[in-house]
Amino acid sequence: MALRRRRRARPVLSTVLPGGALPPPSALELERRAWRTRRARRSTLVALASTLLFAVVAYLAVTRSPGWPRVQATFFSPSAALDALPEIAEGLLVNLQVLVVGGLLVLLVGLGTAALRTLRGPAWAPLRILATVYVDLFRGIPLIIVLYLVGFGFPALGLQGVPTSPFVLGTAAIVLVYSAYVAEVFRAGIESVHPSQRAAARSLGLTHRQTMRIVVLPQALRTVTPALLNDFVALQKDVGLISVLGAIDAVRSAQIQVGQTFNFTPYVVAGLLFVLLAVPSARLADAVTARARRRQQSGSLL
Amino acid sequence: MSVLELRNIVKAFGSNVVLRGVDLAVDEHRVVALIGGSGSGKSTLLRCASLLETVDDGQVLLDGEDVTDPRVDADRVRRRMGVVFQAYNLFPHLSVLDNVTLAPTAVHGRPRAEAVEEARGLLARIGLADKAAEYPDRLSGGQQQRVAIVRALAVRPRVLLLDEVTSALDPELVGEVLALVREVAGQGMTIVMATHEMGFARQVADTVAFLDGGVLLESGPPAQVLGEPEHPRTRQFLARVIDAGRL
Q1: pLDDT band at B246 (very low <50, low <70, confident <90, very high)
Q2: What single DSSP character describes residue B103?
Q3: Exposed end of chain B (fewer CB within 10 Å): N or C?
Q4: pLDDT tens per residue across span B56-72
Q5: A204 within some domain
Q6: According to the model, what pLDDT value does residue A13 have?
């Protein structure tokens, strides 16, 4: 590094003291900081006051409405909620199972489909086309129609070995639809990795597969994690749709109880349970997104 | 026999013809500097030589073997060349050490322990032994580019292709990268480098080749091409470089 040694020392431009310690703040800076603190405190107070005011107004508007006593008794009955809770919670376990099994399968099928779509070369054309058709088809059909077709169509074939359990068929339908979405998320991630990364990997002699596995996919996964978590939050509530096939999940349990008591509170209970399930995932998605943004801002061009 | 020989290389992107039949032979232990303005085809020529682009005509011969033959496995050929890019192109999700050991282990199947030992040796030589566990974005541009050079050297290539390796660097970081290139050249590595650093080309290169509009207008010893250029286009180019204070 002879060239480097020959270079002149850089002139010192900053006012940072030797040893890296900051000089004590000037009176001007202290005054600015005090002003910022005062302003932040005032903003918090204003926000609190306006939130409270809004809550009070909303509460009064709803509870003073003429139909409120009936609505309260039909939708927000504490006793009906308590009665319904155990069975709905039990049903929610079914939803959770679909969520876990389905979620994992969606990741696998989605990644596989995305990988098929990025294949090049004429030999892979049939698989590439198949993957494209699959994604186009299942992104277009409403989930509930897929549920009906898979849930009632497959058993109707009467084939040996075709499962008839609404749990299995419902999961299959959800996996079919969500994998199509997730495949597109993965593909966007793969394409977001800069071509120069591929060039660097190929120039080292890595094969297409090695380049994909070692260089492209790890970077793509990092990019798409927030989007994947977002899809996971959506999946969490859509697993409730398997109730249309007759699986005794949280929604179906609520429906049964509504039918018995003519009180709609169980639906509210089931809805609240799904919300409770979704909140942590949503917060996690936010946190991961924020972290990814920070990484990107601190990182280099690549 | 030349280590790398380019014969009548033609390359077009759509209707834009970038290379119009370039011939260049690089003998072992020689350093060839490609000079020329932006868009003259320097980078494209290097990308064709490293098989990152498919040539539209002509041949690339590596140790006498025609590697542009479609029956040749391009992955195997690329293992025998090292490429360093203008924007470093380190893998941001891998540590410095993993960047350097990736090709020796994944491509050449060498034992990890051995590859790590050699990589640490190489990093120590460029004064970055203590950065082995860091990720590339924690390094300065000059440090990243030196790691990229070491990464290319770790596969023990027959020829090193350097594509404007200092163009993305702050002026004060250019020196450390050029010093490394000089050292590598001094150890006998065969090098083809596209560069705007005329002073460096004059000192280090055995041959300077001037590309203009996709044609190799003249080539020869640096003193001749940079000192007494024959072709008017070369003189014009060098005059502009001198005006810009780069020579």
Answers
A1: low
A2: I
A3: N
A4: 999 999 999 999 999 99
A5: yes
A6: 46
Chain A residue numbers touching B176 (CB-CB < 8 A): 1, 3-4
Helices A265-298 and A78-118: crossing angle in degrees, nearest 10, is 40
Look up the ipTM and state it: 0.88
Residue B128 has pLDDT above 90, yes or no: yes
CB contact under 8 A, B137 and A300: yes
**CB count, 10 Å around CB of B62?**
22
Sheet holding B16-26, edge to edge: B16-26, B4-13, B57-62, B65-66
Q: Which residues form the domain of B142?
A: 91-156
Say which of B76, B85, B176 has its CB closest to residue A196. Answer: B85
Residues of A within 8 A of B80 (CB-CB) are: 205
Domain count, chain B: 2
The per-residue pLDDT string of chain A (302 residues; one tens digit each, 9 = 90 and over) reads 344 444 444 444 444 455 567 888 899 999 999 999 999 999 999 999 999 999 999 999 998 988 898 888 889 988 888 888 898 999 999 999 999 999 999 999 999 999 888 887 788 889 999 999 999 999 999 999 999 999 888 888 877 777 778 889 999 999 999 999 999 999 999 999 999 999 999 999 999 889 999 999 999 988 898 889 889 989 998 998 988 888 888 889 999 989 988 889 999 999 999 999 888 988 888 888 888 777 655 544 43
- Which domain CATH number covers B42? 3.40.50.300
Distance, in Å, from the CA atom of A64 to the CA atom of A31, rounded to the nearest integer, reads: 50
Number of H helices, E strands in chain B: 9, 10
Judge contact between A235 and A138, C-beta under 8 A. no
Which of A243, A245, A242 is CA-nearest to residue A257? A243
Number of domain units in chain A: 2
Instruction: Choose one of B156, B181, B207: the last residue of a domain.
Output: B156
CA distance B234 to chain A (A): 28
> Encoding tokens for residue B207?
């041959």
The verdict on a CB contact (< 8 Å) between B89 and A197 is: yes
B70 and B167 fall within a common domain: yes
Is residue A153 located within the same domain as residue A178? yes
**Domain limits at A46?**
32-67
Percent of all residues in chain B with a pLDDT value above 70, rounded to a whole number: 99
Shared domain for A60 and A191, answered yes or no, is no
